[in-house]
Design brief:
354 residues, mainly beta, Porin, two-stranded antiparallel sheet, 18 strands, 51% strand
Length: 354
């Protein structure tokens, strides 16, 4: 099956399934979409020092996403479809480790094992959320494939302050396949997760599905505190297990506002591979303009402690169109190596439909 036909069939199937939840109330159907266009203006890294061809610099990468949601009888159905521009869904930068930190150069970040023309590559979310009635607190049961509640950075370009992912993004799950029981009461929230092994080795595709090779499951917990009426910072704690080398990951986020225009976030992570990783993010907004600064570091206790610095400037060109210019510098800090710095300049346009 050609890739275009495969994607089109998925789209039609999603619209039919979600729309059939209540054809008599079609006005309740919510459709959101966005287009993410990235231009890699500059790409400088050690691998090019010997005169190697740079297949990344000066190139465009585009991604589209369509989200369909329908609520009926206390249950919300949602499907998010990703449309990468490349055959494999991935355009990895020539910057080596830097390439893994770039948001828009990885078009198939789904958290599921997926390769070319696989079902997992194009489905970001396929879930139901049931608001359990008759309880003194808000309690929801989510099942399917859904965005992970662990970690600071969002996946989708409209929800992000930077073009590039920070290093900690890859150390927590992006999406999870399983169930989540989440509740909240006042300023407190929490959830329990039981999912497929998020960091287990991937098996080959079975038909149009890609199944995990691991026989284990992941178990996770989250706790959160957020109260806009107090000066106390927001707090988010996430914990999740895996049969992979990380074994168990602990992620802690403290965030808040310094002034109405200045915000901050500090994320700390540790597992059996990473001794300590942290990211500090600062943001400033004024009208249609925004500035972002992020510094992160990952200490594995070995011969390297890679760090990266990201500086971003954004402007809303229209209500539905944002442009972002970003500089990223990455130092792999490999002991005994020569130049370990890699730099990129990225230009991004994000158009949204809500």
């Amino acid at each position: 099956m050609k890739k275009g036909s495969f994607v089109l069939n998925m789209l039609l199937a999603a619209l039919i399934v979600v729309g059939s939840a209540g054809l008599g109330r079609a006005g309740d159907l919510k459709v959101n979409a966005f287009v993410d266009v990235l231009y890699i203006a500059a790409d400088d890294h050690p691998a090019l020092d010997g005169g190697a061809k740079n297949v990344v610099e000066g190139q465009f990468v585009a991604k589209g996403e369509l989200d369909v949601e329908k609520e009926t009888d206390g249950v919300t159905f949602r499907i998010d479809l990703d449309f990468p521009s490349s055959e494999t869904g991935t355009a990895t930068g020539g910057g080596g480790s830097l390439g893994s930190t770039l948001a828009s150069t990885n078009m198939s970040v789904t958290g599921l094992p997926g390769g070319p023309n696989t079902f997992a590559e194009h489905i970001e979310q396929a879930k139901f959320v049931w608001a359990i009635p008759g309880l003194p607190l808000d309690l929801n049961l989510t099942g399917g494939v859904f965005n992970s509640p662990i970690g600071y950075e969002s996946q989708d370009a409209p929800d992000r302050s930077f073009v590039a992912y920070g290093q900690l993004f890859a150390l927590v799950p992006s999406n999870l396949a399983g169930i989540e029981l989440a509740g909240s009461m006042g300023a407190l929230s929490g959830s329990v997760l039981f999912t497929d092994d998020w960091a287990g080795a991937a098996a080959g595709p079975v038909g149009t599905l890609v199944l995990p090779a691991s026989e284990e499951n992941s178990f996770g917990l989250t706790l959160g505190y957020s109260d806009a009426n107090t000066p106390i910072p927001d707090l988010s704690v996430g914990y999740i297990t895996t049969s992979g080398p990380a074994d168990a990951t602990l992620d802690i986020i403290v965030s808040g506002a310094i002034t109405p225009m200045l915000s901050y976030a500090v994320e700390y992570l540790t597992d059996d591979v990473v001794d300590a990783a942290f990211a500090v993010t600062l943001g400033a907004t004024h009208g249609k303009h925004a500035l972002g600064l992020r510094y992160d570091s990952v200490d594995t206790g070995g011969a390297a402690t890679p760090t990266s610095l990201t500086v971003s400037a954004a402007c809303d060109l229209a209500e539905v169109l944002t442009a972002r210019l970003e500089y990223v510098t990455y130092d792999s800090d490999v002991s005994g190596a020569g130049s370990t710095d890699a730099d990129m300049i990225l230009l991004q346009f994000v158009a949204t439909l809500n």
